[in-house]
Amino acid sequence: MDATLDHVMMRVEDLDESLDWYTTHLDYEEKGRWEADTFTNVFLGPEDVHDEGALLELTYNHDGRSYTMGDGWGHIAVRVEDVNDAYYELMDEGVEDYRRPEDNPGYAFVKDPDGHEIEIVERDHGARWSIDHTMVRVEDADEHLGWWTRKFEYEHTGRWEADGFANYFLKPEGAAEEAMSVELTYNYDGRSYELGDAWGHLAVRVDDLDEGWDQLMTREAEDYRDPESCDDNYAFTKDPDGHEIEVVTS
């Protein structure tokens, strides 16, 4: 199955404020928009994002609701050539100081207006500010590594093991280095997580929705929202901890 990561969705409380933040500070441009009666979805990314690069989907519900962040989702990470320069460029623009590169050699963090964490990582590939990975916290690393491998044929592309936790990075086999990966963070203390509702889903892109969905069902993925229930435009399954995974076509 060809299942490149297509986008990551987060919910925002003030669409104009969020659009201003991402277009001003990360130089994102609008790649697509879906205006419905009750919500608006806007897709954002750098001007020169790679064909296999992922976009950021902002979902704004028109009823003025607020959201809880939870801790089952972690952050998105964006690529730059120099973390220190990029971080202090954002500081000069008035972005909130969250985690400085001096305290975290090789990376830094800022937050968007809703409190979603944005990690800044140093890479020699990909457009500036393009999404490198999305991190989710998982309660059983073995189960999740097996889930992504069996359901979507992802391969293990990196790991970082510390005293109290491990991070595992996965991508589709043969994916471009500019493609987004999923980072699984596993803490060794057996904690559990709340998903909240400020984060929405990860989306994978397949060539044929029905064929891709049939493969997932054969591989015993959860039948959460099948293509028919989504007007044959997309579908949803869930990982073992309940993170929603959308299946879309290009």
Automatic annotation (TrEMBL):
GO terms for molecular function: lactoylglutathione lyase activity. It comes from the Archaea. One of its GO terms (cellular component) is cytoplasm. Residues 238-250 have a biased composition (Basic and acidic residues). Residues 225-250 are annotated as: Disordered. GO terms for biological process: methylglyoxal catabolic process to D-lactate via S-lactoyl-glutathione. Gene3D superfamilies: 2,3-Dihydroxybiphenyl 1,2-Dioxygenase, domain 1 (3.10.180.10). PROSITE patterns: VOC. Residues 4-123, 130-250 form the VOC domain. This is VOC family protein. It comes from Halosimplex rubrum.
